[in-house]
Design brief:
Blueprint lengths: L21 H38 L2 E7 L14 E7 L54 E3 L15 E6 L10 E8 L2 E3 L4 E3 L1
Antiparallel strand pairs: 1-2, 3-7, 4-5, 6-7
């Protein structure tokens, strides 16, 4: 005869205890921690950059200069959209550099100006002057070349093109022509290529 163990009373039974699965909870929160860490690192980097840039600007003496915002070809008239005032380290600031928009706007460039280049009075036409002479910087000159001076028919050329000029003795062999000057810049083409100004 077997004895059966007494069944516990249902009213006295206790629910089984469960433990929190910390590893699963940690895995769920990891992406949020990573995003928060990245954002904090980004903010710290920006703050450090701003601080170091401020220190650099204070340690390097700077001055204001007028700078070309885009490349300017000779003969182009400067507008307010083509120039801007920027801080420039005094160590590379040329003497006589323009510092105000009014000093350049409305004037014509006489030599090519690169983007970001500091503007100097010698690179621009004299205020109040017009014509071809106003487009020539100090020390430069221009000459008119009639088309009948050319050995061959004048090709299609335009401002900014460059030519080589050769000289030869009339009646002599063309192969004996000598180079007079090279890379002459065409400033203006007048009429139907009848007169070339270079």
């Amino acid at each position: 005869m077997t004895q059966s163990s007494p069944r516990p009373n249902d009213s006295n039974a206790t629910a089984p205890e469960t433990t929190t699965d910390w590893s699963a909870s940690s895995r769920r929160r990891t992406p949020y921690y990573l995003v928060a860490a990245l954002l904090l690192a980004l903010l710290a980097g920006l703050a450090a950059f701003a601080f170091l840039d401020d220190v650099r600007q204070r340690s390097v003496p700077t001055g204001q200069a007028l700078v070309a915002r885009e490349a300017v070809r000779p003969g182009n008239e400067l507008t307010a959209e083509m120039v801007e005032v920027r801080p420039v380290p005094e160590g590379i600031l040329p003497e006589g550099a323009l510092t105000q928009m009014s000093q350049a706007v409305g004037r014509t460039s006489v030599i090519p100006i690169a983007e970001g280049e500091i503007l100097l009075p010698s690179k621009l036409s004299t205020e109040g002057c017009g014509g071809l002479s106003s487009r020539l910087p100090d020390g430069r000159w221009a000459m008119v070349l009639p088309a009948n001076w050319m050995l061959s028919p004048v090709p299609e050329i335009g401002p900014g093109d460059r030519l080589d000029l050769l000289g030869y003795k009339e009646g002599g062999a063309r192969s004996a022509a000598g180079l007079v000057v090279s890379a002459v810049e065409v400033l203006l083409v007048h009429g139907d290529t009848a007169i070339q100004r270079a």
